Amino acid sequence: MASPTAAPSQDELATAAALTVFDSTGKEVTFGSLIKDQKTIVVFIRHFFCGICQQYVTQLASVRKDALEKAGVHLLVIGCGDWTPIKHYCETTGFPYEVYADPKRALYKTFGLIENLKQTPSGQAKRSYITGTVVGNVLQSIWNGPLKRPHHLGKQGNFAQLGGDFVFGPGETCSYASRMQHTEDHVEAADLMKEAGVEYP
Questions:
Q1: Which of 80, 91, 107, 125 is such that its CA lies 20 to 30 A from the CA of 156?
Q2: Nearest to residue 82, comparing CAs of 100, 56, 63?
Q3: DSSP state at residue 169
């Protein structure tokens, strides 16, 4: 198992670059093409119905376009489900940047992203993006997922899959890595932007 903050090896980066993801229209593109030309923040979320990750991506939506352009940085999200829920996911979160799908979870496996359903450990402060209770977040996930879009049920991705936050590029390089260890473990948005050299808020 990879250390939560270990950068992927050159072999892993080369493998990942050749793997493909799908955009919101179902078009297949290589991961390498997404990080080839500029520094890119890549946020791997859990499944597309995860209300906690939706709160995080809603926070990321506040990252200013001009701040990204000034820093020469690209920001994108990758989910582990089918590409068909992407449009609804962007509507739900207000996320104005690109979202991709990795339904085979090939990138997740390559980068050592783990599976579990653990919550924030006792005695550890919850991340600032988590605004609701456990029950509230479960209900939000159900409401924004299968209740609103029942035709997306089964296409959201693996419920136990965890994500992670990375800064890649330009090219097959990685300057920052943070792999989730539980379901509420995305790195603080302010810290992620700092690692990428992006002004925030």
A1: 125
A2: 100
A3: -
Strand arrangement of the beta sheet that strand 73-79 belongs to: 28-30, 20-22, 98-101, 73-79, 39-44, 164-168, 174-179
pLDDT tens digit string along 109-157? 999 999 999 989 988 998 999 886 555 555 565 556 555 666 655 568 8
Output the pTM of the full model: 0.90
Collapse the DSSP code of 162 into the 3-class scheme (helix H, G, I; strand E, B; otherwise coil) and give the result: coil
Q: pLDDT tens, 177-193?
A: 999 999 999 999 999 99
* Contact present, 105 and 129 (Cβ < 8 Å): no
112: left (phi over 0), alpha (psi -120 to 50) or beta: left
Residue-by-residue DSSP string for 6-42 = PPPPHHHHHHHHH-EEE-TTS-EEEHHHHHSSSEEEE
* SS3 call for 47: coil
Residue 168 burial by Cβ neighbours in a 10 Å radius (0-12, 13-18, 19+): buried
